[in-house]
Amino acid sequence: MQRLWVPHRMVYVADHRQPDHSDCPFCEAPKRSDEDALIVARGKTAYVLLNLFPYNNGHMLVCPYRHVSLYDDATDEEVAEIAALTQTAMRVAREVMGCQGFNIGMNQGAIAGAGVASHLHQHIVPRWSSDANFFPIIAKTKALPQLLGDVRASLAAAWPHP
């Protein structure tokens, strides 16, 4: 097989424009249902959702509700909740998905690779020893074994509720 048909990614690949406050997907997501927006958990100042274009199965994003672009523009309360939600996301992903490690990070600004540079978001990418197989290396393609809605449901169900 030389090609893997993934037409759903065309929306992401074809749009080279950075969204601003008027069409920010991270401002719009909390206005929708958790299922529709792929939201895993909601906090007071920030929330967790699945990445619509994941690098790996269970790829989550932690975003403040407030439209702020840089980490150093976030309030102390937002920074603390982003950190706490990140820790909980890691624990839940290990419990539900059995992942063995994580890539965690933020791309600050379009020049640094942020797909949505205008709204701060932290990536939490679960990793397994077996996720670096031949397929992404040879075929330049990542196979995701679960549907996003199913992943969201399993993570949300395991999320601790105070």
UniProtKB/TrEMBL annotation:
Keywords: Nucleotide-binding. It comes from the Bacteria. GO terms for molecular function: catalytic activity; nucleotide binding. A motif (Histidine triad motif) lies at residues 119-123. Substrate binds at residues 51, 113-116, 123. The keyword Nucleotide-binding applies. Pfam families: HIT (PF01230). Residues 25-134 form the HIT domain. The keyword Hydrolase does not apply. The active site is at residue 121. This is HIT domain-containing protein. It comes from Leucobacter viscericola.
